[in-house]
Specification:
This protein is an alpha/beta fold and 157 residues long. It contains five helices and four strands; from the N terminus they run βαβαβαβαα.
């Protein structure tokens, strides 16, 4: 049994979640062959998502059973302040289950999901937030063109 009161109990916390929570599932299985450049790709995806957002963004990363150097990279990026929350799983849960789990945990009013191989151009978030502001009842907005969807949306009679 402990004696006394936990000193953290009355501690005032200044941190508040950002309006936007960025979510990313990462899988770095190894650094050979097909995956030889994955460390650099993932690092660039994370840096560009956070640094090019144009406003504060809390990035939550789910590490889907990455190799040792992959885990080390993600921890370093968290120590640098780019990753707010880092969860590591022993098994690769796949993108679908990982995305579901991250969506349930996100604290922001708005969620921005990205794959771990996407480069985000400077100011990428602003136009999407502006679109959401003009259409508040829309369920999702994407900054990526969906070529297959253009057919039904632009077909003339």
């Amino acid at each position: 049994m402990r004696v006394g009161t936990n000193p953290n109990k009355r501690q005032v916390r200044e941190w508040m979640p950002a309006r936007v929570t960025g979510l990313m599932a990462v899988h770095l299985p190894n650094t050979k062959g097909y995956h030889a450049d994955r460390l650099r790709v993932v690092e660039l995806a994370i840096r560009s998502m956070v640094l090019h957002a144009g406003e504060r963004l809390d990035l939550w990363v789910w590490d889907n059973a990455s190799c040792g150097v992959g885990r080390k990279l993600l921890r370093r990026l968290q120590e640098e302040g780019l990753i707010q929350s880092l969860t590591a799983s022993r098994e690769n849960l796949g993108v679908g289950l990982t995305k579901q789990t991250l969506l349930r945990a996100a604290l922001g009013e708005i969620v921005a999901y990205s794959d771990d191989d996407v480069y985000h151009c400077p100011g990428w978030l602003g136009p999407q937030l502006e679109l959401l502001a003009h259409f508040p009842d829309v369920g999702a907005v994407t900054g990526a063109p969906l070529r297959a969807m253009f057919d039904w949306g632009t077909r003339s009679a």
